[in-house]
Amino acid sequence: MTFDNIALQVPSILLPPQNTDMKNWAVIACDQYTSDRNYWQRLQQQTQDKLSTLHLIYPEVYLNDDESVQRIAQINKTMHQYIANGSLVEQAPGFILLDRKTTHAVSRKGLIVALDLEQYDYQKGAKSLIRATEGTILDRLPPRIQVRKDAPIELPHIMVLIDDPEHKVIEPLFEHKLECVYDFDLMENGGHLRGYKVDQPQLIAQVAQSIENLADPDSYRDKYQVDGEVMLYAMGDGNHSFATAKAIWEQLKQDADTNNCARDTIMNHPARYALVELVNLHDPGLEFEAIHRVLFSVDGEILLKEIDAFFAQRNTPFNFTPCPSLEVAQQQAQGYKHLHSFPCVIAGEFGLCNISNPEYNLAVATLQGFLDHYLSTHPATQIDYIHGSQSVTELGSQPGCCGFYLPAISKHTLFKTIILDGALPRKTFSMGEADEKRFYLECRRIK
Predict the structure, then answer these.
(1) In angstroms, what is the C-alpha Rg of the chain?
(2) CA 128 to CA 140: how far, in whole Å?
(3) Number of helical (H) and strand (E) elements in the chain, helices listed first
C-alpha cells in the first residue's frame, strides 16, 4: 500500500523469530564509534555464532582496511542465509511503533515506515518533499553503494524528522492496544526498546491522513511564512545511507531504460523505497547534540598559525586564549554573544577559539571552512566527527591530535532554516549522543 502524495509506503518488515536473543540481534548504527575499534571488537566477540545484525552491516571503523571485498561478500552471503533459513520472518504489511528509553531520555517515540526515493533530492536548492538537512559528501557514497548494490535486504539506521507540534502522527498510536513484537534491553548502554505492530487498516489510514495534513500547502505557508514547494520530511540521521539508496534506485531506473524494460515494472521495484524511522521534531525525548571535530597527525603550533592566517585573509580575525580546563573554556565561550566562540584541545592543552565578524550564521560552518582548507593542504592529517565531548577530550589529548568542541543548534529552528537556507554544513548536528543512535533491528527486502 502506498500513498504517493506523501511519499509513504506501508512496508512488509522482516523480523527475527520470537525466540531470538534480541540484545545480541540489535547493534548500533555503523557510522558510530568510528575511532573506537575496541567497541566493535567487543560486539564481534559478543555476537559470534549468534543471530545478529552485526553480521549484516559494515562498521565504518573498518572502511579503510584491505578486506572490504571479502567483508561485503560475507555480508551478502549472510543476508541470503538469514532469509533462506528462517532467521528473518516477513510480517504482514504495516508499521512498527517504537518507544526507546536511553540514558538521556525516558522515552523517544518513532514509527518505522518506508519513504519514496522518487521524492527525495539531496542536491543544493532541492524543492522535494524529502530533503537533506546537511551537505551530502559524494565521496562517502561509493563504499556504501558497494555494500548495498547486491544486498537482498536493507536495515535502516536512518531517522527522518517530521515537524508535528500538535503530536498528531505518532503519539496517538500509543492510545490503542497493539501487539508488542519486541521488548528488551539494548547492548552497550543503549537503553531499552519496545516495538508494536501497526497493521490495522484504520490506524494506517489515520497515520497517512495526519501526515497529509502536515503537507497541506496552505497550512505549510502559514506555519513557515514562506511560499514554494512543501518540505514534509527532513533527514535526521543517516543522510548518506538514504542518499546511497537513492543512487542505487537511480541506477536501477537507468539500467531499465537501457534494457527497454517496461516503466511500470521498474517503478514498482522494492528498491524505490527505503525503510526509515520517523521521529517527531517535537518529541520531548529528542535532543540535538553538537558534532565535534578531531584532527589526527597534526602539529598544533602550525595549526594555530594557519587558522589565524586563514581568517585574517577573510577579515574575520581569529584569537586563541589558553585555558586551564575545558570547563573554564566553556564558561568563557558563553560570554561571547556576537562572536563564534568554541573550546579546543591541542595535545592535552585546552583553549578558547574566537572568530570575529564570521561569514556564516553557524560556528560549525565557520570552522569547517578552515578545516576543509587545512585538510586539502595537509594530506597526512585525518579528521573524524565525534559525538560526545568526553571522546573529544580523550582523543584530542593524545600527541599529534586536536579536538574542537562545537555548540549544538536549536531543533525548533531546523525546518525553517532548511526551507530558507537549504542544507546545513555537513555534520552540523546529531540527534542525541552516540549511544542514543538508532540500532539496527527491522529489515526489508529490496530485491
Answers:
(1) 22
(2) 22
(3) 13, 24
Fold classification of 290-409 is: 3.30.1760
Q: How confident is the model over 342-379, as pLDDT tens digits?
A: 999 999 999 999 999 988 878 888 999 999 999 999 99
For residue 356, the Cα-to-chain-centroid distance in whole angstroms is 31
pTM: 0.83
54 Cβ contact partners less than 8 Å away, ≥ 6 residues apart: 27, 43, 44, 47
Give the residue extent of every domain in the chain: 2-287+432-445, 290-409
The amino acid that residue 198 corresponds to is: V
Structural element, H or E, at residue 77: helix 68-84
**In whole angstroms, what is the distance from residue 439 CA to residue 157 CA?**
6
CB-based contact 441:110 (threshold 8 Å): no
309: closest CA among 298, 317, 321? 317
Q: How many CB atoms lie within 10 A of CB 143?
A: 17
What does the alpha-carbon distance between residue 383 and residue 401 come to, in Å, rounded to a whole number? Answer: 10
What the block records as the C-alpha cell of 353 is: 577559539
